[in-house]
């Protein structure tokens, strides 16, 4: 597959046209390379987020996991394969139950971190993913933390400051690339008890154009937070 075709697939996903990306890959005569396989997994992963049918969602996630696992087996140093293996593993382990989800937290974090090391300055998405992971680990209560510590071999730890650093890096790479990044910047500042710094980011998130389901949910949460500031 040519670099121009790979670029076109990436542009389709940047424009939220995941079905077109999937269809284009399906039309290819050779779908065996790592670069094609992780992009196929990416399309399936995002298509799974667009359906409300739970059975269809699960089938798409599991298909995506099979393809991204194959991509990683072909090239363990592939940025895209590591990035989406982490993302899809998180989704798949959630489908497999609470215990499996907790067991896989360390692996999800490790693949995100490896992807960030492979491409530290060119892709804002991986820093956002790692930021969300750090934020969610930081906000768990003591009961959940106790459960995680009892199940996970090496339970991950993080902080709101680490999450903020990730979201800040994402924004520096490509300002305004994702409304949710604005929202999480605001949420991190709120968690760090810095409401003055939080408000401008949350206001941006509340005024963002709705282009996908993530944007709609972002808008809703941002407006709810603004009422409390």
Structural class given helices, strands, pairing? Answer: mainly alpha
So what's the overall shape?
A: globular
Sequence of secondary-structure elements: HHHHHHHHHHHHH
Number of strands: 0
Average residue pLDDT: 95
The fold-level CATH name of the domain at 1-96 is Serine Threonine Protein Phosphatase 5, Tetratricopeptide repeat
Radius of gyration: 18 Å
What is the beta-strand fraction?
Answer: under 5%
Main location: cytoplasm
GO cellular component, one term: mitochondrion
Keywords: Cytoplasm, Cytoskeleton, Repeat, TPR repeat
GO molecular function: microtubule binding
Written description of the protein model:
The protein has a domain at 1-96: Alpha Horseshoe (Serine Threonine Protein Phosphatase 5, Tetratricopeptide repeat), CATH 1.25.40. The chain has 13 helices and no strands. It is mainly α. Helices cover 76% and strands 0% of the residues.
SSE arrangement:
Layout: H1 3-14, H2 18-26, H3 34-48, H4 54-74, H5 79-95, H6 98-103, H7 105-118, H8 124-138, H9 142-151, H10 160-173, H11 179-191, H12 195-206, H13 213-228
Helix pairs in contact: 1-2, 1-3, 2-3, 3-4, 3-5, 4-5, 5-7, 7-8, 8-10, 10-11, 11-12, 12-13
GO cellular component, one term: mitochondrion
Subunit structure: Interacts with microtubules.
GO molecular function: microtubule binding
Give descriptors for this structure:
single chain; 229 residues; mainly alpha; Serine Threonine Protein Phosphatase 5, Tetratricopeptide repeat; 76% helix; globular; RMD1-3_a_helical_rpt; Regulator of microtubule dynamics protein 1; microtubule binding; TPR-like_helical_dom_sf
